[in-house]
Write a structure and sequence with these properties.
Elements (H helix, E strand, L loop, with lengths): L4 E4 L2 E3 L4 E6 L15 E7 L8 H10 L8 E6 L5 H20 L13 H21 L5
Antiparallel strand pairs: 1-2, 3-4, 4-5
Length: 141
């Protein structure tokens, strides 16, 4: 749980770069919910981070631009009744977000031609089908 946040491969974010905040969570919990801070907010300053390789950081800043507030990525978790499980959920969400945002772009698709035989067969089958339908027409006299 505590320790670096593993992203992908050998890259991880040190605990010092993660900021935790706890607050009261809404939802089930009875009387206990009014006294315990179970909602977890995990923040990571992506813009100021030194732990990510420059290429990864640039990619993440570009892909997560809509989610960042001043270069800071924020993840909230409040679905569990215990702070510990919410911490685990927030950590897992943050790691998944960063792994997805720093992934290399997919290989460009190479355009290929449709083989002539396949196209001819498609047209032949189409013609047969149209013949079948034409033969069904007008034979009711």
């Amino acid at each position: 749980m505590s320790g670096p946040l593993h992203i992908r491969g050998s890259v991880s974010v040190p605990e010092a770069e993660l900021m935790w905040r706890f607050s009261r969570s809404s939802g089930p919990g009875g009387q206990h919910v009014n006294t315990s801070d179970t909602q977890v907010e995990l923040r990571f300053d992506l813009g100021a981070s030194e732990s990510l390789p420059p290429v990864w950081k640039e990619r993440a800043l570009e892909r997560l631009a809509g989610r960042l507030a001043g270069g800071v990525l924020t993840v909230r978790a409040s679905e569990h009744r215990s702070q510990w499980r919410n911490r685990e959920a927030a950590e897992a969400r943050m790691a998944a977000l960063l792994a997805q945002a720093t992934a290399p772009p997919p290989k460009a698709r190479r355009a290929t031609r449709i083989p002539r035989g396949i196209n001819e067969r498609r047209l032949r089958v189409k013609k047969q089908r149209s013949e079948t339908k034409r033969n069904r027409r007008g034979n009711w006299d």
